[in-house]
Amino acid sequence: QVQLVESGGGLVQAGGSLRLSCAASGRTFSTYVMGWFRQAPGKEREFVASIRWTAGIIYYGDSVKGRFTISRDNAKTTVYLQMNSLKPEDTAVYYCAASLSIVSGRWGYEYDYWGQGTQVTVSS
Fold first, then answer.
1. Which of 43-47, 70-74, 86-90, 94-98 has the lowest mean pLDDT?
2. Within 13 Å of residue 106, how many CA atoms lie on the same side as its CB?
3. What is the 3-state secondary structure (H, E, C) of the chain?
4. Which residues partner with 96 through β-bridges?
5. Which of 59, 102, 103, 111 is the most exposed place for a label (fewest CB within 10 A)?
6. For the residues 19-37, what does the mean pLDDT come to?
């Protein structure tokens, strides 16, 4: 079992920044890929970013490239999502996920565990 707890969400004006954190506990030594997804009301879940834990291979969704940065702290078993130049369309619940397999991390079905989510609201 892997437990994931997200934090750092909130309300921010357009153009502002937020940093999300996802603290992992439990079988973290078995975790290969960590990712962030988001879901806005009435929309499907969207891939945001993923990172392979040891190799550091990173992918981003097209809508966040150049604005968001995913990173990890191996010692703290924590993954971060730095979000800059936020737009109202970034408003969503952001979820952290963990995969015990070596996968691309770009698809929700690749993940074994999910956090409960943190709300990000960007006002115009």
1. 70-74
2. 7
3. CEEEEEECCEEEECCCCEEEEEEEEECHHHCCEEEEEEECCCCCCEEEEEEECCCCCEEECCCCCCCEEEEEECCCCEEEEEECCCCHHHCEEEEEEEECCCCCCCCHHHCCEECCCEEEEEEC
4. 36
5. 102
6. 89
- Paired tokens of 121: 């609201």
Amino acid type, 106: R
CA dihedral 59, 61, 66, 72 (to 10 degrees): -40
| CA gap 58, 71 in Å, rounded | 9
Task: Pull the structure tokens for residue 94.
Answer: 């952001």
* CA atoms within 13 A of residue 81's CA, in its CB half-sphere: 32
Residue 59 CA: distances (Å) to CA of 7, 33, 48, 55, 105: 21, 11, 8, 12, 8
